[in-house]
């Protein structure tokens, strides 16, 4: 079960939400739980080096950090590590949660009562479905999504599209994307009225193909060209949404890994 500690000193909710980090995530988290969390529109990152975590958390002091006690260090060392994060003014506002397969009640008592971790003590032994439900409730209680409804990422020259307009196939680059729409620019100038429905758009997301239909929501000039904002028509199929969300998570992870490499 998850016992949750109330905390009136919770940071002010921001529009973009909080980054959610998993330190030494168990395989079940990497392979399955992460996509469920991204499906719920949270920004998720996986970490595999505890030595760099204090410096990274100092950059993202309004983030949430779930620590797997079963990997990386022995439990007494994790206790010291967490206490140091809590004592350091640069990382004191990071909201910490615990993940473990250990069912020891005294261990849970220590982290919940003595260390007062605000994101709970989650027992992975409860099974994937139950653990995911508990974790999502912890994220919701800690306002991790902020005021935004959908997670959006900037595409790093690895996302393109094509669509048939009239008797020609037009191609272009996706600027950014979410599970409900995208911003894009065409390779060659086109004129498409707002509210036009585009059928069978083929997306190529880092080599993965997906098809959507969309409605032109608006346009705006960017660097001498016209950028189109498209809203996916109703909801893409579950398979398409899943492909988009996998792409979003991969982009988030790649961006964070590049940043971590710059840490001193």
How would you describe what is shown here?
The chain has six helices and twelve strands. By secondary structure, the protein is an alpha/beta fold. The strands form two sheets. A six-stranded antiparallel beta barrel has the order 7-8-9-12-11-10. A five-stranded parallel β-sheet has the order 2-1-3-4-5.
Helical proportion?
25-40%
Biggest sheet architecture:
6 strands, antiparallel, barrel
* Rg (C-alpha, Å): 21 Å
How many strand elements? Answer: 12
From N to C, what is the helix and strand string?
A: EHEHEHEHEHEEEEEEEH
The side-by-side strand order for the widest beta sheet comes to 7-8-9-12-11-10
Q: Provide mean pLDDT, rounded.
A: 89
User: What is the number of helices?
Assistant: 6
Overall shape: elongated
Which oligomeric state applies?
A: single chain
Terminal-residue CA separation? 38 Å
Structural class designation: alpha/beta
Low-confidence stretches: 1-14
Strand content: 25-35%
